[in-house]
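The records we work with from here on pair a chain with its fold. These numbers are not coordinates but entries in a learned vocabulary of local backbone shapes. To see the layout at work, look at the sequence and tokens printed below:
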Amino acid sequence: MNMSKAHPQATSLFYLAFRRYFTTSNSNHPRTKACRTWRHTRLQPCRIFANSNIRFATTRASPVQKESLRPQSHYDLFPSSLPSGAPPKGSFHINRALLRKEFLQLQAKAHPDRHQGIDKAKAEAASARINDAYKTLLNPLARARYLLSLHGVEMVDDESIAGSPSESGGGMDPGLLMEVMEVREEIEAAGSREEIEGMKVENNERKKASEDRLDQLFRAGDIEGARRETVRLGYWVNVGTALEDWEKVGDGRVSEHD
């Protein structure tokens, strides 16, 4: 038998007595402390990172809280160094010094050793998320690929290496492919570190021009253009790696030519 339907008045009186038991006027009473602690852990969100944009799901969330718990981009984690967010509102270029400063501040807050229990587990997850976001945004090529992924464009792993067409359409620019091949031949034929240093300067200029172009394309909302330019940037990054590899074994190559 349902007591609430048979004796509604009795049920109300029981509820009032129960509530009064747990809300005694003595704020220091153990029952009051226990009740308030229970309500706090059930209804309040985690406050570890109250001043940052790192959020965690709560047991109960209001519609406003649910909206604030929507998936965040890497840019949302760094509001001080990247206040405008991702392009097109923000720039593709970033201030590396400011980003690193904010990164260190966030990592200090999220360090697992500063937290206990369930908060420690959340801190470990937050620390990993911050580290991944920082590494991605710090690297221009990784940053461009990440921005493309936000628009539903996933770059093939070897697309910037072998020049294979991506699923989003379009193959490699034959002119670019020829230019890259010529640069690689020059690297192979190089006989001194001075030559390699000159090539590194030229290649850094190519990468800078590509990054400037990406800034324009992302701001204009030209995602396909940004995809093609990201492939171009990937080639110049690989050329830079080849130049660094030459320097590591350059002396041996010179002796072989001799």
About this structure: The chain has a mean pLDDT of 74. DSSP finds eleven helices and no strands in the chain. The radius of gyration is 29 Å. The longest helix spans residues 223-257.
